[in-house]
Amino acid sequence: MMRAGSAADAIAIANAVRFGLVAAVFTRDLGSALRLTSRLEAGMIRVNAPTSGVDFHAPFGASKESSYGPREQGLAARAFYTESRTVLLVP
Question: What are the boundaries of each domain within the chain?
């Protein structure tokens, strides 16, 4: 853990690392949570929850050097692992 003097300092510290798998923000203020999450460079950002664990319906992946390739799980996985095909049947 590192102590930050302000929310801006916390964002700078978090974004200074070369990895970006998951981050967490703890606050009672929804507006602050939304502002902070929009500035964090991470593939998943959890609000008022630990960084471990993920809902298997949510697309999962990282940014920076933490990941390679598209998101997994959720609609992103369906789009990645399937292809669309049109079939026309004429009687």
Answer: 7-81
